[in-house]
Amino acid sequence: QVQLVESGGGLVQAGGSLRLSCAASGRTDSRYIMGWSRQAPGKEREFVARISQSGGMTFYAASVKGRFIISRDNAKNTVNLQMNSLKPENTAVYYCEASASYAASDYWGQGTQVTVSS
User: Fold this and answer.
1) pLDDT tens per residue, range 71-111
2) 3-state SS, residue 97
3) Is residue 22 a contact partner of residue 34, using CB atoms and an 8 Å limit?
C-alpha cells in the first residue's frame, strides 16, 4: 500500500505559478511511476504529467507542456509539480498518483485545489 498526500494548492492569478508537492509513504521503494492528474468542475479527471521510476523520463499533457515541470526525489519519497504561466482553465483539483505501470494508476491522494483567477 502507498499513501499519497498532496500540498501546495491555492489561489493564484493568471500568469502566476504554484508548486504542488506529494509526499508518499508506505511501500515507497521508488518502484512506482508517479504522476499528477486533475479534475475540473463538471469534467472528467484528466492526465497532467507522469515521471518514470528513476526520473529519467517525463510525460506531459499537450495543454501543459512547456509550462509545467514534474520532478521527483526518491530519497525523500516526494514528487513535485511546478506550474508556471497558469491559466484560469487550469483550475481543478490536482491528484498525485502512483502506478506500477503506465496502463493505469494504482494509488492516488485526496487532491489539492488549485484555483486560477483571471
Assistant:
1) 999 999 999 999 999 999 999 999 999 999 888 889 999 99
2) strand
3) yes
Contact (Cβ atoms closer than 8 angstroms) between residue 66 and residue 92:
no
Percent of the chain with pLDDT over 90: 88
Q: What is the pLDDT of residues 44-80, one digit of tens each?
A: 999 999 999 999 999 999 999 999 999 999 999 999 9
Query: Does the CA dihedral 32-7-68-113 come out positive or negative?
Result: positive
In the chain, DSSP assigns E strands to 2-7, 10-13, 18-26, 33-39, 46-51, 58-60, 68-73, 78-83, 92-99, 107-108, 112-117
Supply 78's cell numbers.
516526494
Q: Mean pLDDT across the stretch 23-44?
A: 89
How far apart are alpha carbons 103 and 69 in whole angstroms? 21
Taking the CA atoms of residue 73, residue 74, residue 77 and residue 83 in that order, the dihedral angle to the nearest 10 degrees is 30
Q: Please state the φ and ψ torsions of residue 45, each to the nearest 5 degrees.
A: -65, 140
